[in-house]
Each structure stands twice: as structure tokens, then as C-alpha cells.
Amino acid sequence: MIQYFVRRVIQKHKTMILDEAVRINGFMKLLMKPRNTGTGWTKMEKEQIRKHLKRLSLYVPVLIIFLAPFGSLLIPVLAEILDRRKNKRATA
Q1: Residue 17: DSSP 8-state
Q2: E-assigned strands of 2-90?
Q3: Which site from 21, 35, 36, 84 is most exposed, i.e. has the minimal number of CB atoms within 10 Å?
Q4: Which among 28, 45, 39, 43 has a CA at the least distance from the CA of 91?
Q5: Contact indicator for 80, 58 with CB cutoff of 8 Å
Q6: Is the dihedral of CA 9, 61, 87, 76 positive or negative?
Q7: Strand locations in the chain, DSSP E?
Q8: 3-state SS track over 7-69
Q9: Could you give the angle at the alpha carbon of 56 between the alpha carbons of 11 and 48, nearest 5°?
Q10: Exposure of 53 by Cβ count < 10 A (0-12 exposed, 13-18 middle, 19+ buried)?
Q11: In angstroms, rounded to a whole number, what is the distance separating the alpha carbons of residues 84 and 71?
Q12: Which residues 6+ apart lie within 8 Å of 63 measured at CB?
């Protein structure tokens, strides 16, 4: 239920989120790390992602959901939606 809501909201604001996200140096690479390499984020990387999302939420308020308690569980959904590749990689 929550995942469906998050997908719908992110999809609605995808262009605006991508425009702001690419301006943050290294954010998209860090966000896509599990999708590109198959390895998860380290604790330090998760903190960096949360810091970047906090900054992004100033411009795109819908991202505030990822800063709420347990919001980090939804970050893979964000990565999946923002993936700009034409041919999606098979997830492991």
C-alpha cells in the first residue's frame, strides 16, 4: 500500500526530482549502487543518501517521506523509479 503510494507520487514528480538530483555531485551514482553492482549500501553511504535526500526535500517536498522513521526502507523504490536506463538490468 505504502509502496504503491510512493511509486505514484515519485512517478508524478520524476522529472523535477531528477533535475535536482543530478545537480548533487555523486548522488545518482550512490543511489544506483545496489542496482549497478548488486551490493548493498554501507552504513556511511546510507547516511550520505539521507543527507542528500534532506537537501533535495527542500526543493522537492514529496521526498520528505524518505526522512521519516523507516523511510530508508523505501529508498530502493526511489532508485528503481529514477533508473534512466532504457534496458533495465536484471536485479540479483
Answers
A1: H
A2: none
A3: 84
A4: 39
A5: no
A6: negative
A7: none
A8: HHHHHHCHHHHHHHHCCCCCHHHHHCHHHHHCCCCCHHHHHHHHHHHHHHHHHCHHHHHHHCC
A9: 110
A10: buried
A11: 22
A12: 17, 53, 56, 57
CA distance 12 to 65: 15
What would the pLDDT profile of 2-36 be if each residue is shown by its tens digit? 778 878 888 888 888 888 888 888 888 998 898 88
Query: What's the grid cell of residue 50?
Result: 539521507
36 grid coordinates: 549497478
Q: Which amino acid appears at position 23 of this protein?
A: R
Neighbour-count burial of 71, counting CB atoms closer than 10 A to its CB (0-12 exposed, 13-18 middle, 19+ buried): middle
| Unique residue bearing C-alpha cell 543530478 | 22
- Verdict on whether the full-model pTM lies above 0.90: no
